[in-house]
């Protein structure tokens, strides 16, 4: 019982770190990083906060290497924070969030340096892509072509995706 309690305590600590880091990333992009104008670059703190516990459970305990996750677009700051905590994202990319060469405002397989499973820049696509990926995986498995363990396809959706 003590081991489970310690694991939950560690996950809670990591969750707080990821949430703080995602909030700092947005604040840095809007208020600290030097800019040539007064425009704010945005960021969605509430969207990140709304999935912080879910992300802690997934990235801290549940996901297997073969699993794939479609992260709701507005939660990219906390996704990038988790990637940083896992050693898959750089501090420089977080400091340049929504800037040239920095972490993208929406998870992107082509523009992000970290491990994005599904590009979800168009709101609503993540859920559909994960369902389609699961169907393709099932088809490939049924044909006997699957060369790796079957993964779970997970979608994290927000109100914009519904």
Please give a structural write-up.
- With 162 residues, the chain is mainly α.
- The chain has a single domain, classed as Thiamin diphosphate (ThDP)-binding fold, Pyr/PP domains (Rossmann fold, 3-Layer(aba) Sandwich), CATH 3.40.50.970.
- Helix content is 49%, strand content 4%.
- It contains 6 helices and 2 strands; from the N terminus they run αααβαααβ.
- A two-stranded parallel ribbon has the order 1-2.
- Helix 1 packs across helix 3 (52-62) and helix 1 crosses helix 4.
- The protein is globular.
- The N and C termini lie far apart (39 Å).
- 33% of the residues are buried.
- The mean pLDDT is 92.
Looking at this protein, list some descriptive labels.
globular, single chain, Rossmann fold, 6 helices, 49% helix, mainly alpha, 162 residues
Helix-strand pattern = HHHEHHHE
Give the full name of the CATH homologous superfamily. Answer: Thiamin diphosphate (ThDP)-binding fold, Pyr/PP domains
Unreliably modeled segments:
none
Q: Rough shape?
A: globular
CATH class: Alpha Beta
Q: Summarize model confidence as the mean pLDDT.
A: 92
The major beta sheet can be summarized as: 2 strands, parallel
Strand percentage, roughly?
under 5%
Q: Could you tell me how far the N terminus lies from the C terminus, measured between alpha carbons in angstroms?
A: 39 Å
**Number of H- or I-type helical stretches:** 6
Order of the strands making up the biggest sheet:
1-2
């Amino acid at each position: 019982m003590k081991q489970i309690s310690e694991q939950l305590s560690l996950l809670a600590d990591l969750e707080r770190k990821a949430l703080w880091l995602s909030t700092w990333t947005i604040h840095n992009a809007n208020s600290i990083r030097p800019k040539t104008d007064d425009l704010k670059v945005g960021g969605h703190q509430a969207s990140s906060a709304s999935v912080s516990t879910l992300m802690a459970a997934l990235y801290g305990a549940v996901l297997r290497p073969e699993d794939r996750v479609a992260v709701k677009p507005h939660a990219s700051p906390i996704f990038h924070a988790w990637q940083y905590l896992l050693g898959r994202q750089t501090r420089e990319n977080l400091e340049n969030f929504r800037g040239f060469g920095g972490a993208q405002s929406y998870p992107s397989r082509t523009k992000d340096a970290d491990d994005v499973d599904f590009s979800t820049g168009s709101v609503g696509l993540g859920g559909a892509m994960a369902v389609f990926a699961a169907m393709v995986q099932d088809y490939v498995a049924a044909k006997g072509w699957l060369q790796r363990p079957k993964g779970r396809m997970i979608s994290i959706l927000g109100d914009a995706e519904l």
